[in-house]
Amino acid sequence: MLSLLRRITQEVTAAQSLSAALDIIVRRVRRAMRAEVCSIYLVDTNTQEYVLMATRGLNADMAGNISLKADEGLVSLVGRRAEPVNLEDAHIHPSFHYLKGTGEERYRSFLGVPIIHHRQVLGVLVVQHEDKRRFDEGEEAFLITLSAQLAGVIAHAEATGAITNLSPNAIPSGSDFRYKGIPGSSGVAIGRGVVVFPPADLDVIPDRISTDPEEDIQDFYQALDAVRQDIRRASNRISQHLSADEKALFDVYLKILDDNSIAGEVVRKIQEGNWAQGALRQVIQAHIQQFNRMDDPYLRERASDLRDLGRRILSHLQEKAPNLSERFSEPSIIIGEELTASMLGEIPIDKIKGLVSVMGSGNSHVAILARAMGIPTVMGALDLPYAQLDKVDLIVDGYLGKVYTYPSEALIENYQQIVDEERQLEEEYETLKDLPCETLDGRRLSLYVNTGLSADIARSLDRGAEGIGLYRTEVPFMVRDRFPTEAEQVVIYRQQLEGFAPAPVTVRTLDIGGDKALPYFPINEANPFLGWRGIRVTLDHLEIFMAQIRAMIKASAGLHNLKIMLPMISNVAEVEEALALIRRAYAEVKEEGYDVKMPQVGVMIEIPAAVYQVNELAELVDFLSVGSNDLTQYLLAVDRNNPRVADLYNSFHPSVLRALYSIVDQVRDEGVGLSVCGEMAGDPMGAILLMAMGYDVLSMSSTSLPKVKAVIRNISMGQAQAMLDEVMKLSHAEAVTQTMTRLMREANIERLIRPSKTNNVD
To answer: What sections of the sequence does the record tag as coiled-coil (predicted)?
Structure first.
């Protein structure tokens, strides 16, 4: 059964159009269940009617031409209940409604299951028999399982406008196609899309119109020949270590490469208009699907051989392709299945207008980086047909998490007004640069910045930052192909310390693991967020930890503005061990003759266990800094990078607010510094609540700083505390944000956060 489900799903995924995919479903399900009828009804999003889209057993001519109202018939009953309906005799059910012309009158038994994607009913899958009999539990379970697997495929096809042709270069008719994602970084971007993808990964290669088919064909044949040579060299190099049977594998590879049918298919796809890489992906995937459908296990295994060869050819094609940075003649909107920091690092910053990532959430590191650079970003746009959007006009709405493709002139004009209003707000922010961040009644709040790149220094100082609340040392580790030496780290940290001297600079020790990986130090775990990360890694590798601490202290020579922060602390023993090592490193550096002072040491409160040991931790260290991103993630048991549960990740969840308030309460009289360095600190709504709780230092991205300062300077501490009192009584995160939005509007400060027209565009 599992094999059958897999094969049906693979066939549907490989279909070139929505109608073809639906036809595969009804044909294969009818045969698999030995049913006399199988039909698919999809919901028309405009009318909410259930339209018969495909059928085997009923009159196929009626597909696309007849429908059931939202409250009419058994199909709509399945949709309304969002659960299966299994009937021995459908005709006697009070909801039965006969669709004239379908030939349905002779079929008595009925089993309908909903097709659900992200809690939304997309349609209903139905099987029927002439005789009166109830479908058994196994048949019902099979249909439920299949509909769950197919829901994503159908949702993706419908997201393109339910067009009947999903071929690579087809342009949808109409305009203003809207896709919903998750706000990643506020702002609006209007421009053309450029699709980016990781190297040598066939699955993510987009389709793109070839600018020179003849050159593409020539490049393809050169890549093909290069792979042949690679395989022959590999065969010769290790032939003496292989048996005759094992050596035959190389011959199989060469035979596949010499198969003119595959090469010919790629060439034809190029001649039809697709570029070489897209044509290769189409052909290789089509053949892989064929192998996967075969019953013979040996032949099915050939699918992996073909995939391997496809990647080899692709890597040679990509060697000839222009560098990523060369593809940008003008500022563009970058689109990818899963954008990474390394991808962004290859693109000149002045060429990035906006970002759209199919995967990830608003608290993915790419989104955090985008906020730091002030780039409008949408994350988690799961249904976006990203591979088809190269050189397509787009609008990215980072406020509401929406992406529009093929926007109309009217929509562009509306969003251009928002861009113009954003520019005016930026000019207002500019006047605040040298003014203190204090409330109308004189309460002072210190605004620091989170940094990771040397370029952040000038940008942060230009926006009036008073210090660095979090310097992410993993960033310079991630852009190298090895661990940086102690001497290299001294230079890196000195830049940050000098740039802000005499203001304090809080340097976090290496925080890798979870979703932050070093290419040269892979950590493969089943559950990385509960695994080996942060302080756990560095205490297990003293050579890494000691080199880093020594480098930090050396870099502070003569400046004396260093603060060291330890991440992912879950118990007192970790802090005691780390402090002993820091003191040892300080003594060693001092002995070497450096003019240094013992730096202040603090810990991050980002694990629930630390929340309940705040008092004990405060007795050991000089300051505490709450990492609201991870604290929210761990309190709510939500992976912040998983778009499927991203809507559950909310820093304004009552449990998170109560934990944050509890931390302040526990250390109020301890004389220890207390700050927040997560993304919540850079949200003006969050900043108001945190200030009201008693946090006196907030650290954020440099682009968030002017907004937070503008809001704080326009309210009193009394107003902020009244807002906090009101929301702390609430039991829903949505109620908190709605209440805060209303209170900020009444206080006339919402206008300082985002352009007013963002409330009117849809």
So the answer is: 408-435
Fold of 177-198+337-407: Glucose Oxidase; domain 1 (3.50.30)
Domain boundaries, the chain: 1-160, 177-198+337-407, 213-319, 444-710
Q: Which residue has the higher pLDDT, 387 or 650?
A: 650
The fold of the 1-160 domain, in CATH, is: Beta-Lactamase (3.30.450)
* Three-class SS of 97-162: CCCCCCCHHHCCEEEEEEEEECCEEEEEEEEEECCCCCCCHHHHHHHHHHHHHHHHHHHHHHHCCC
- DSSP lists the bridge partners of residue 542 as none
What gap in Å lies between CA 127 and CA 54, rounded to an integer?
12
CATH code at 444-710 = 3.20.20.60
Q: Give the three-class secondary structure for 405.
A: strand
Q: What is the CATH number of domain 213-319?
A: 1.10.274.10
Are 395 and 188 in contact by the 8 Å Cβ rule? The answer is yes
CA-to-CA distance for 624 and 631, rounded, in angstroms?
A: 13
Nearest partner of 522 among 473, 468, 485, 478, judged by Cα: 478
Q: What is the pTM of this model?
A: 0.72
- Tokens at residue 242, please? 């292989």
Identify the CA nearest to 640 among candidates 336, 343, 368, 333.
Answer: 368
Instruction: State whether residue 506 is helix, strand or coil.
Output: strand
Catalytic residues, by residue number, are 365, 677
pLDDT at 166: 30
